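On to our target:
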Amino acid sequence: MNLPPPSGPTLSLASWEDAERLFYSRRTSVVTVDQPLLLVTQLQRSGGTLLNSLLDGHPELHVHPYELQIGHPTKYDWPSTALAQCSSEDQWLDVLSEPRLERMFREGYLKVGNNEAAVTNAALPFTVVPSFVERLFRVLCVERPPTMPRQMLDHYFTAFFNAWFDYVGLRSEPKRWVVGFAPRLAWGANRQGFVTDYPDGRQLSVLRDPRGWYASARVFANRFGDLDAAIKLWRHAATEIAAAKEEAPNRVLVVSYEGLVAHPEDTMRRVAEWLGIAWDPILSMPTFNRLPTLPNSSFAAEVTGVRAEHAERWRSELEPEIVTRIERELMALHAEVAARTGIDSSSASTVARRVGRRSDAQRRPTPLDDARPASATPTLSELTQTLEHLAATTALEMMNLRTRLREVERRLGLLEL
């Protein structure tokens, strides 16, 4: 339900002079937001929104309240290259401006996915004033002209959080991190762009069981409905998470979606320790501006809090032949990535062992099996899928080999000393 539009000037709740004074008082008492960025990033429908909302209320964090959309030219492109090519405040704003702010300022905060139960609830006030973000950013750029992308990003986050007029955490205890949730923003070369701008930053990613992910994703958006494309996308996402962890083990933390919803306090205590922030019980409660929120779910959920049952929803939502195919093509990779990124994922290991032990005679038949004799030649599509799986597995094996070689080199170096 949308919030009612503001009244016209004759029925306004405050004079224009008072409104201008309000903005001026915020302008003269700006809180600088230049902490390192904690980037929450993975494939959509993997639990990033939940993780971001669990971090929302912690007093040592500035948490961007929605999906961070500073990517350029698409939201999946880290903006440093585009920013470096710009030379004016107008151009920097064109790169960093988030188009959703205008709509959310008008309609309020209501991120619910396909959760029909949540749609009937009133939106929460969203008081980030878009025009003030823009103008405050310009003022900061004039006062302290930025010469590199990190400084432009610091100005943008300073403008954003100071233009959020009822943000309860703005002046609380000193902050350690700025937190932003942005799907796919650290894949491939974009990851290096993030590291270059934020050498002190960190990446926090969620790995979700591909069966649960597909059950959620295909309901959420039609673009995820094609199973072939979805399998390829999940495989790519899992490999990117593994690559990020292998490249920088200490600055990347991976948690499992299933562990997060089953044991939110245990998972969030681990996150808090990794970030060097104090434990606070609010880390176990999804909030927006410290107000409880309903799940951003592909299915109906009428109560606030972390819902453990969402992890097993695929059992009633997916057709048996789809489950069989996902298990055959992705579960071994899921277990491998979980192991190599340090996830305590006993359920994933159990599933992988079960799938690995299942013989061809034991596994459930698929429509493809019915349509083709056992001796028939595999189709081009099947061969492509097999090769993609082998490529992903080989990439993970190479990462493991490099890690072992570095350890051998380190030990040899110690022996020489």
